[in-house]
Amino acid sequence: MTEMTHVFVGTATALALTANTPESIVTALIGGAVGGIISDLEIWSTPQSRRSQFMVAGLVVILLMIDFLLKGSIWHYNQSKQSTAAMLGIITFCALAVLGLFKKNIRHSLLSLLVSSISIFFFCAPILPSFIVGFIAHLALDILNQSPVFIFYPHRRGINLNLCAPDRLINKLFLMLGILGTLYFLILY
């Protein structure tokens, strides 16, 4: 699947499962987008993947600014949090992301989900439920691909259903469903 498919399916799924108030939309969008694309940080080879990653980074910055201006749940959380715990979470998250640049199998695993979730809890707990949903949506989509996904890393056997490729119809279908789902839930709230 393409990065944009992962982002939109992640945000649509996170909005559907974690956003229950207008205030929770920002955290659902941030968590769903980051969870949806974080496993593919090592993909930097095409202009499309670089654009997708920059777009997500820009979206996160804009949404964080909105949360700050509205004094939303992320702002409140960080006002009450000790900076040592937040820094530990950020360092752990960044270390895992850098490690993932070299080892794709780690980034597409439940172990990565666990470590990433713990680190996010320390520096931005409000996005944690939507991050988990976006991450799981990413893994579920990648299982449909031709390449095996090593969900149970370090176990050496991967899972794949070999149903689609990034440039095929199923990817485009999931992308459209993700876009429509994201728009639907944004309008709903």
Structural notes for this entry:
With 189 residues, this protein is mostly helical. It has one domain. 71% of the residues lie in helices and 0% in strands. The chain is built from nine helices and no strands. Helix 2 packs parallel to helix 8. The protein is globular, with a radius of gyration of 16 Å.
What is the topological layout?
Elements: H1 3-18, H2 25-37, H3 47-69, H4 73-80, H5 83-102, H6 104-107, H7 110-124, H8 128-143, H9 169-188
Average pLDDT reading:
84
**Number of structurally distinct domains:** 1
- Cα radius of gyration in angstroms: 16 Å
Q: What characteristic shape results from the CA principal axes?
A: globular
Our count of helices gives 9
Given helix and strand content, the structural type is: mainly alpha
The parts where pLDDT drops under 50 for at least 5 residues are: none
Distance between the termini: 28 Å
Percent of residues in β-strands:
under 5%
Helix/strand order, N-terminal first: HHHHHHHHH
Oligomer description? single chain
Biggest pleated-sheet summary: none
Kindly state the number of beta strands: 0
Percent helix range: over 70%
Summarize the structure.
This protein has one domain (3-183).
